[in-house]
Every structure is written in C-alpha cells, then in structure tokens.
Amino acid sequence: MNNRRVEDEIIREITTVLKETRGEDPKKWVEDPLTFDEADKLVYLKASLAETLRLYPSVPEDFKYVVADDVLPDGTVVPAGSSVTYSIYSMGRMKSIWGEDCLEFKPERWVSESAGGYKFETPKDGYKFVAFNAGPRTCLGKDLAYLQMKSVASAVLLRYRLSPEPGHRVVQKMSLTLFMKHGLRVMLEPRGLAAAE
C-alpha cells in the first residue's frame, strides 16, 4: 500500500497479461474474474503476496506435539508428549534466515528474471517459509489461496489505488490469526484504467 514501485510493477504485470488474453480495451479487463491461466502468469504478484505473508503471516505462531523423544539440532532434548511452539512471525524477520534486509519488503527475493519475465522461486530450504506450514504438513489449500489472493488483488488494484487513511494507527494484534487491532482503514482513489496501460 505504501510501495508505489511494487504497485506499479504489479499493475504492469496484470495489464500485460490481460492485454495478451483480453485485448487492448481496459473495460474488458474487468468484465470477468481472472482465469486460471491468467492468474498463473502473475508471478510478480505472487511474489508480492509471498513477501507479505513472510512479514505478516495469517497464523503468526504454531505448535506441534512431539510423538517420540527427539533432540533438536542445538542439542535440546524434547521428550515425547511435549509441545513445541514456534513463531512464524519471528521466523519471517530473522536475519539468519532472510539476510540483513529481512525487514524490507522485497518481492524480488521470490523471483528470478527469465526470458519471458519473472519466474517464481520457492526457497530451496522447504522450512524457510512456513506461512503455509512445510514438509508433509504443507497446507493443501495453498495454491487455491494464492489463486484467490491474486484474483482479489487484481480486481481491486485494477480499479483503485489504496493508501492508508491519514492519522489511522495501524496496530497488529497477535492472536490465533494476525489481524489489525483497529482494522486497516484505507482510502480508495479510482484508478483510470487507461492510466494502468
């Protein structure tokens, strides 16, 4: 919402895809929801959504029950029957995992440049990004969630520029799910579709 460079790149990507599939008339871009194929081509948007979830995961912490005695890599003994809690929110902000720029919003950390544009790069360590859990417990609805997020984000961003309401204090509230204590009030400025070309 406060990163015009990223927003402009998302708009560029969406309009490029929609020009290819629906033609040059911007009115046709908003007549119907994205198709699966159109959504699949929105790689930079997916990277932006992944980066958002890295910094603001829907579920900020999780826990697991230990079924058999185990020893963690640092030598900590974890007996069967214990529960282990981990902070997904904190993991997304750790320098040891994400580097010195871990607090910066950088969708580019999720993509590589390819001949046709961007290619989404899943972290090589499957347990680095755990907003959808990881390993055999990865959320079965992850791809559907990305599809829905892309569809909603595209529909909103093609029509409006969003900005935080002046004076509104954005305060996160930790709970089972991460949400804003006082909501997230935004101002909507109609986006001339011709300006999105």
UniProtKB/TrEMBL annotation:
Annotated residues for binding of heme: 139
GO molecular function: heme binding; iron ion binding; monooxygenase activity; oxidoreductase activity, acting on paired donors, with incorporation or reduction of molecular oxygen
Residues forming coiled coils: none
Known cofactor(s): heme
Keywords tagged on the record: Heme, Iron, Metal-binding, Monooxygenase, Oxidoreductase
One Pfam family cited in the UniProt record for this chain: p450
SUPFAM superfamilies given in the database record: Cytochrome P450
UniProt record, GO biological process: lipid metabolic process
PANTHER family: CYTOCHROME P450
Protein family (similarity comment): Belongs to the cytochrome P450 family.
Name of protein: Uncharacterized protein
Lineage per the UniProt record: Eukaryota, Viridiplantae, Streptophyta, Embryophyta, Tracheophyta
